[in-house]
Amino acid sequence: MSYKHILIPVDDSPISYAAIEHAEKLAKAFGSKVTVMSVIALDPFTGVDFYKIAPAVTQYILEAEANAEGRLKDIKETLSHHGILVETKIIREVPTATGILNIADEINADLIVMGSHGRTGLKKLFLGSVAQEVLTISPIPVLIVKQSN
């Protein structure tokens, strides 16, 4: 089996960078193209009176987009320098797992490589798991890179 197009969803966590390292090795081995993506969601403001927090939401979105753009630019430069064909995408205003799966479908990815914090028990129940949701719903293989303790 060979992977032609690998999708790597990232955020600003160290586990995302571990996933990038794994994906880079796979991309080199298979000559794969890579798309690195971030999702900008409004989750922190769910259920809050929009009119009272509108300036905070606007500032949050602007900062989140600037951070995501900078992160994706740096990752693209690094992977490109290592000989990998890279594209980047930012998705807005959708749940994270939905954004990841939509992009995987849009780009015809045949593998998703993503990090997981490896939460278990009550932490997973209350905090949810984007990686678990993607793994459960995805029609294509998903490689989960777990955070080591």
Automatic annotation (TrEMBL):
The keyword 4Fe-4S does not apply. Gene3D superfamilies: HUPs. It comes from Acinetobacter silvestris. The keyword Cytoplasm applies. Belongs to the universal stress protein A family. CDD domains: USP-like. Pfam families: Usp. One of its GO terms (cellular component) is cytoplasm. InterPro entries: Rossmann-like_a/b/a_fold, Universal_stress_UspA, UspA. Keywords: Cytoplasm. This is Universal stress protein. It is found in: Cytoplasm. Residues 3-146 form the UspA domain. The lineage of its organism: Bacteria, Pseudomonadati, Pseudomonadota, Gammaproteobacteria, Moraxellales.
